[in-house]
Design brief:
The complex is a heterodimer. Chain A contains eight helices and 24 strands. Chain A is an alpha/beta fold. In chain A, a hairpin with a 2-residue loop joins strand 21 and strand 22. Classes of the chains: A alpha/beta, B mainly alpha. The complex binds flavin-adenine dinucleotide (FAD).
Chain lengths: ~400, ~100
């Protein structure tokens, strides 16, 4: 029996388990997937929990529901990969051999990396919404909050879904307007970047939106520490921003398993060929999703597009052919802008987000880089698509390669 | 893209003032280019710049945090050397393209 092992049963790992089981003969290939948790979280839904749009129930399902029959699911913590000997070691001492390995262990937020962040005020006045614990604690806090300085800070890049922090402040604006206390809430967006977003055209459009919504932007702020006593965040060059409620996007790092395996960079992201999606150290290891160090967004949409490339290249490798799949870094994100509207951006390694319509040129229905009601519905629809289409590895009506038709240069 | 004479050499720069060809870089060019921006480079600056060039040559992404782990300076020290926007300034003087660490 030949063996395919998948590390991580999140978005990427689950998609690959479904795709590969369909094409690999059961009497020739054993497929195993490993994850330390039993619950699958719909992470994009975390954004909506603080504002009461979703509750915890809306974003969780058992992981096992999405693992196809014929795939062995092991609930355990991965200790490390021994690439020289084609082996994976689990924490409980179990060892697994593989012919091919897919690493999809994602990223985690590490508030401990910033002095004072996980201090006295943690989950009292300081919250993250990138974990289920953080976002549910914040939802409780908002219910009785009467206003003050609401500060959102991005500690460093890269982060998952780089538009989520922007969506958060725009959603907060709408939420406090609806609660009738917007005049008591001062919203400030504090970022290490030069502007609202990483890509110039989108940054300008989004920056103007923030201004229109009366949201302050503090750019070029690189967080050093949090002063719990005086409720301030302080940058490396001694700039200070006071807060009553701090929403932090903590430093993101790959899993420690990557470090123990010696296959990552200094932030524990897997060293990955950005076109073939192979590990740069071992040809029989492929990397999918947030775990990779490739220069594109860490987002579910990227995972979906990249999964098609990993699928193609893994089959090439299994059959001993030259790899034909080449990833272009394709990413697209719905951006919630509040009041029932949303925007959409679409980009890749070489092309920044441009205005236009998507996926059908001139028709849409989604408008690129502009606020429309349709884009908002797109985002809400995405949850259904995620559970029912995406995770199961079914075909989506969007090609993995980005195309320029429908975009305005 | 534009050409500019720095320390007697013709250098290709992009619209933001970053080198488009890292091989056109030399220590003299770096010193002169920094001086034009009002910065004086010490040996410490140059050590950081060499580190950046090495990292970029090996295809690795560059972040402020990774420079803080270089063993040459910590992040605070990096800010002191290149006040304001350290990564931007340092990569400019290092003759490499604008860091793509944020997407
Ligand atoms: C607030 C928020 C909003 C977002 N919004 C959007 C959006 O609007 N659109 C979008 O496209 N994307 C969005 N995303 C991003 C998207 O959710 C992720 O990019 C995507 O889920 C990544 O998939 P992945 O398979 O790489 O990792 P994950 O789905 O995170 O899976 C990694 C898995 O590996 C397991 N694992 C890791 N290490 C080990 C170990 N040592 N042992 C055992 N198991 C291990 C983990 O338990 C986890 O289950 C958002 C994310 C957040 C947090």
């Amino acid at each position: 029996m030949k063996k395919l092992v998948i590390l991580g049963a999140g978005t990427g790992g689950t998609i690959m388990a479904n795709k590969m089981r369909k094409v690999l003969e059961r009497d020739e290939w054993e497929i195993t997937i490993i994850d330390k948790f039993k619950t699958h979280y719909y992470q994009p839904g975390f954004l909506f929990i603080p504002f009461g749009t979703y509750t915890k129930r809306d974003v969780i399902k058992p992981k096992a529901d999405f693992i196809p029959i014929g795939v062995k699911y092991i609930n355990a913590e991965i200790d490390r990969i021994d690439g020289e000997h084609n082996k994976v070691l689990l924490n409980d001492g179990v060892q697994l051999n593989y012919d091919f390995l897919i690493v999809a262990t994602g990223v985690r937020v590490v508030p401990e990396e910033t002095p004072g962040l996980k201090g006295e005020l943690w989950h009292k006045n300081i919250f993250d919404f990138y974990t289920i614990e953080g976002t549910t604690a914040l939802s409780k806090f908002f219910k009785t909050w009467e206003g003050g300085e609401l500060v959102l800070n991005i500690a460093d890049n890269p982060i998952k879904c780089p538009v989520a922090p922007l969506e958060f402040v725009m959603y907060a604006d709408a939420y406090f307007v609806e609660r009738g206390i917007r005049d008591k809430v001062n919203i400030t967006f504090v970022t290490p970047m030069e502007g609202a977003f990483t890509k110039p055209r989108a940054s300008k459009v989004l920056g103007n939106l923030l201004k229109k919504k009366n949201i302050n932007v503090v750019p070029n702020f690189y967080l050093e520490r949090v002063d719990n006593e005086n409720k301030k965040i302080i940058s490396y060059d001694e700039k200070e921003v006071p807060f009553d409620c701090l929403i932090t996007i903590p430093i993101h790092m790959g899993d420690e398993m990557v470090e123990r395996s010696g296959l990552g960079d200094d932030m524990n992201f897997m060293l990955t060929d950005k076109y073939t999606l192979q590990s740069t150290k071992f040809e029989n290891i492929f990397v999918l999703g947030d775990a990779a160090n490739i220069p594109t967004s860490k987002a579910g949409s990227v995972v979906h597009f990249a999964a098609e490339i990993v699928f193609e290249n893994l089959l090439c490798a299994i059959e001993g052919r030259e790899l034909t799949g080449k990833f272009d870094g394709h990413s697209n994100c719905y951006i919630e802008t509040g009041f029932g509207k949303g925007a959409l951006i679409d980009f890749n390694y070489d092309t920044e987000p441009l205005p236009g319509s998507f996926p059908f040129p001139g028709i849409g229905p989604f408008g690129l880089l502009k606020e429309t009601r349709m884009n908002h519905y797109g985002k809400l629809m995405f949850r259904w698509i995620y559970w029912h289409v995406l995770l199961k590895g079914k075909e989506m009506p969007i090609p993995s390669e980005m195309y320029m038709a429908g975009k305005k240069l | 893209m534009a050409q500019k004479e720095i320390a007697g050499k013709m250098i290709d720069l992009d619209e933001n003032g970053y080198f488009t060809d890292p091989d056109q870089w030399s220590k003299e060019v770096a010193l002169a280019y920094a001086a034009e921006h009002g910065d004086t480079l010490t040996d410490k600056h140059l050590e950081v710049i060499e580190y950046i060039r090495e990292k970029v040559k090996s295809g690795q992404t560059l972040t402020i945090r990774s420079i803080g782990k270089s063993g040459i300076v910590d992040i605070k020290g990096f800010y002191k050397l290149f006040p304001g926007a350290p990564l931007k300034k340092a990569t400019k003087y290092a003759g490499v393209s604008k860091p793509a660490s944020c997407v």
